[in-house]
TrEMBL record:
One of its GO terms (molecular function) is glycosyltransferase activity. The keyword Cell wall biogenesis/degradation does not apply. It comes from Pseudobutyrivibrio xylanivorans. InterPro entries: Glyco_hydro_beta-prop_sf, Mannoside_phosphorylase. The keyword Hydrolase applies. Keywords: Glycosyltransferase, Hydrolase, Transferase. It holds the Pfam family Glyco_hydro_130. The lineage of its organism: Bacteria, Bacillati, Bacillota, Clostridia, Lachnospirales. PANTHER family: GLYCOSIDASE. This is Predicted glycosyl hydrolase, GH43/DUF377 family. Belongs to the glycosyl hydrolase 130 family.
Length: 401
């Protein structure tokens, strides 16, 4: 059986907008959600531009990261973007007292998304819609040129032993959860569309991103629990994982969102780097797709420099009784990777296609991807043909006859 045919956008569907201060440098990594009308696709995309008015120390202009909104009424062939204002914007406060937000319960909590909201993923759990974003307490500088995460840290960070101070010293990513009101979003009432829930990862433990949930609860260890995918930079920081130090895919189970950063959560390593095109890291890409009979299609990315950059592939998980699901099929081949001129490196030396959202319309899987960390494309394939092909591989990536 040959590989499923994948059709790519011949040109970007979203590009940076000249003159738009929050989106004139990069747009990438879109989350997608299908409207209840079954044909309109809503998109939240990551965007950035220089923000000289928030240059704190003169080292480099900060690049806060925003989310913009777009929609497609032709199955992803084109998108109408709202560049008039961000849908979700970081506050970019530098005074400690200004770095707080009201959560879904009305409590005043530290706003981990003060500096950046990156790489959105949209998903349902039950009848509620949620959004996860990789966030930073402070915006980085031009991160494609150097490690500029600390160029705009205020002095109090180096003197303060508080939670905010300790997390900000590294300025690593913490994944934050929002409730998402799609009606408010698509009608342009952005201020009512996002409700801050809580952080899902511990910034003092390790940088952690590529976080999202399965759309239902699972019975694990005798309790009905939420099930989360995450990708820590250093998996060995978690109990029971001692010998894996490259960024890898983990599962986490807990009874409430707030429990995921505590000892109440149970974590398990799901997948680590196995093949040459994913030597440096692997991470889950867009929320799992229910295949029925307890099986789930999970998209994931691998990275290896300089030969491959970021590429995409797939695995299938099988639910288990009173336990975490396990991998039963994993492709040893990269399936989606940069080929077209507009997808190839520019600011970054890294070839990159990075999918963060997908919708299914009948048998068509429509995936949104960031290309070269600067533009957005759409890839389409037959879901049934893709799943059939993934099932040709066993759990270790061996191609079966």
């Amino acid at each position: 059986m040959k590989k499923p045919e994948i059709l790519y956008s011949p040109v970007p569907v979203v590009e940076p907008k000249e003159g738009c201060d929050w989106a004139d440098t990069m747009v990438l990594n879109p989350a997608l959600i299908l409207d209840e009308d079954g044909k309109t696709i809503h998109m939240l995309f990551r965007a950035t531009g220089p923000w000289p008015k928030k240059n704190l120390k003169g080292l480099s202009d900060p690049y806060p990261i925003f989310l913009g909104y777009a929609k497609s009424e032709d199955m992803g062939e084109s998108f109408n973007c709202d560049f008039s204002r961000p849908a979700l914007a970081p506050n970019v406060a530098y005074e400690k007292d200004d770095m707080y937000i009201r959560d879904a319960n009305g409590r005043r909590v530290l706003n981990y998304a003060n500096g950046c909201v990156e790489d959105p993923r949209i998903f349902n759990i039950g009848d509620k819609l949620y959004l996860t974003v990789a966030s930073r307490l402070f915006p980085p500088g031009p991160y494609w040129e150097k490690d500029a995460r600390r160029d705009n840290l205020p002095d109090w960070v180096f003197e303060d032993g508080s939670e905010a101070g300790r997390c900000a010293l590294a300025n690593d990513t913490v994944t934050v959860l929002y409730e998402l009101n799609l009606e408010e979003l698509k009608n342009g009432r952005y201020e009512n569309a996002f409700t801050y829930v809580c952080p899902l990862t511990d910034g003092e433990l390790t940088d952690n991103r590529d976080v999202f949930f399965f759309p239902k609860k699972f019975m694990i260890n005798g309790k009905e629990q939420l099930l989360m995918l995450h990708r820590p930079d250093d998996p060995s920081k978690f109990e029971g994982v001692t010998d894996v130090k490259t960024p890898s895919i983990m599962l986490a189970a807990a009874e409430s969102f707030e429990d995921f950063t505590t000892k109440k959560a149970t974590n398990k390593l799901l997948a680590t780097s196995e093949f040459n095109w994913e030597k440096e890291r692997v991470g889950a890409s867009f929320p799992p797709i229910d295949l029925g009979e307890g099986q789930w299609l999970v998209s994931y990315h691998g990275k290896q420099m300089p030969d491959y950059g970021y590429t995409q592939s797939f695995m299938i998980l099988q639910e288990r009784e009173n336990d975490f699901p396990e991998i039963i099929h994993r492709m040893s081949e990269r399936l989606i990777y940069a080929k077209q001129d507009w997808e190839l490196p520019d600011k970054f030396p890294c070839p990159c296609i990075f999918t963060t959202g997908a919708v299914v319309v009948e048998d068509t899987l429509i995936m949104g991807y960031g290309a070269a960390d600067q533009k957005i494309g759409i890839a389409k394939t037959s879901l049934s043909e893709l799943v059939e092909y993934v099932r040709r591989f066993d759990s270790k990536g061996n191609l079966k006859n």
